[in-house]
């Protein structure tokens, strides 16, 4: 097998396995309308359950970046997939109220923290910098398909059978994913240390303290401020919209979950396209354009439920495409700003801070819905992309940005 064939095979195995292992991410969000009634929980508490999952993820990525540098991405991915699958089953069989759900969703989030970063690390050993925007974009697409699949499968099965059934069939695939990655994926041993260690350490130190490094980190934080609150609350918002227009609750849950899945699935191709555009036209310019569109969608999306379902769905599909289109750009740009030996740790730090903000925003979103409206809650999300735009414009004028995408800023 040629090297090109081998690296493409590894890419597609990782994508398929990440879909299987990450279906658990939004299976809870898909059944929020059912559990909110069954367990008598508020939007604030539902937001907290979304947030503790993100908290578990953040705690894990503090360590998984470093562990990936030390032990390799393959092992960390496999162990993490097994842990998240076990925690998901624990939620299904043992969670029966808000308090017990907090524990199991936190544990499930811990396992998710060892999938995406190790996967990027593996791919970065196989693909050179000029291809990474597209490749990391494709890999990111697989996470979006997992999120969309969770909404579609879990909501449909929950309405037809039970919420436990919906969550079970979006959890169990984590186990075969772990086995496949461990036995079928390899990491390329790069001749990374043609650079003397002292020189490499100096570069790493300068990079971690540079303005360019932190601008791309904060840009990613702005992106994440909006993204996971949108995904986490999309199904509940769509269900609310259908209920508002006179649909029965069970029908509204089915339609709401299906439309949420479709809107999320629109992002299943956009990270790959966004990564490809950034390879061709520059990381900063591409991210700025995409975030501007996403931020404008946030300002209007939450106000549309009272007017027209068709307009709401159209804007939701557009929003779902653009909100995630820039995801790979920050990861690809960061891999070009740091040396290979520190890549896992740098990606881990980026994820800790980026996902750290997602611990806060879903909870705040729920509070705003309870106390004000869906319109104000979605408008609140626009803060993130507009902050990201400022960071990307500043980064574009920074000398170190020439290291990204072969000098295309």
From TrEMBL:
PROSITE patterns: MFS. InterPro entries: MFS, MFS_dom, MFS_trans_sf. Its main location: membrane. The chain crosses the membrane at residues 12-35, 47-68, 75-95, 101-123, 135-154, 166-185, 212-233, 253-277, 284-304, 310-330, 342-361, 373-395. It is found in: Cell membrane. Gene3D superfamilies: MFS general substrate transporter like domains. Residues 1-400 form the Major facilitator superfamily (MFS) profile domain. It is a multi-pass membrane protein. Keywords: Membrane, Transmembrane, Transmembrane helix, Transport. This is Hexuronate transporter.
């Amino acid at each position: 097998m040629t090297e090109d064939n081998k690296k493409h095979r590894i890419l597609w195995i990782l994508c398929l396995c990440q879909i299987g292992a990450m279906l658990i991410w939004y299976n809870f969000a898909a059944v929020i309308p059912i559990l909110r009634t069954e367990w008598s929980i508020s939007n604030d508490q539902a937001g907290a359950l979304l947030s503790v999952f993100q908290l578990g993820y953040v705690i894990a990525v503090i360590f998984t970046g470093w562990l990936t540098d030390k032990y390799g991405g393959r092992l960390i991915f496999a162990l993490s997939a097994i842990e998240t699958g076990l925690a998901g089953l624990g939620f299904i069989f043992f969670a029966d109220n808000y308090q017990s759900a907090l524990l199991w969703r936190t544990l499930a989030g811990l396992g998710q923290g060892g999938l995406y970063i190790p996967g990027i690390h593996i791919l970065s050993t196989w693909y050179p910098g000029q291809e990474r925007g597209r490749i990391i974009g494709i890999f990111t697409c697989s996470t979006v398909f997992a999120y969309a699949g969770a909404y579609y499968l879990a909501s449909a099965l929950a309405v037809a059978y039970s919420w436990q059934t919906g969550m079970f069939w979006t959890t169990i695939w984590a186990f075969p994913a772990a086995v496949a990655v461990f036995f079928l994926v390899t990491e390329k041993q790069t001749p990374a240390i043609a650079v003397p260690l002292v020189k490499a350490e100096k570069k790493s130190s300068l990079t971690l303290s540079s303005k360019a490094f932190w601008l791309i980190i904060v840009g990613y934080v702005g992106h994440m401020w909006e993204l996971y609150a949108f995904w986490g609350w999309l199904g509940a918002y769509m269900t609310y919209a259908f209920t508002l227009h006179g649909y029965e609750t069970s029908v509204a849950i089915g339609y709401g979950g299906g439309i949420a899945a479709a809107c999320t699935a629109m992002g299943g191709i956009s990270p790959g396209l966004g990564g490809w555009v950034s390879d061709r036209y520059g990381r900063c310019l591409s991210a700025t354009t995409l975030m501007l569109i996403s931020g404008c969608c946030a300002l209007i999306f939450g106000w549309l439920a009272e007017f027209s379902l068709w307009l709401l769905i159209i804007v939701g599909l557009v929003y779902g495409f653009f909100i995630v289109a820039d995801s790979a750009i920050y990861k690809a740009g960061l891999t070009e700003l740091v040396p290979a030996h520190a890549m896992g740790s740098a990606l881990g730090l980026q994820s800790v801070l980026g996902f750290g903000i997602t611990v806060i925003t879903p909870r705040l979103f729920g509070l705003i819905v309870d106390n004000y409206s869906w319109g104000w809650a979605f408008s609140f999300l626009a803060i993130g992309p507009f902050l990201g735009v400022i960071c990307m414009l500043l980064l574009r004028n920074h000398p170190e940005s020439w290291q990204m995408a072969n000098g295309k800023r």
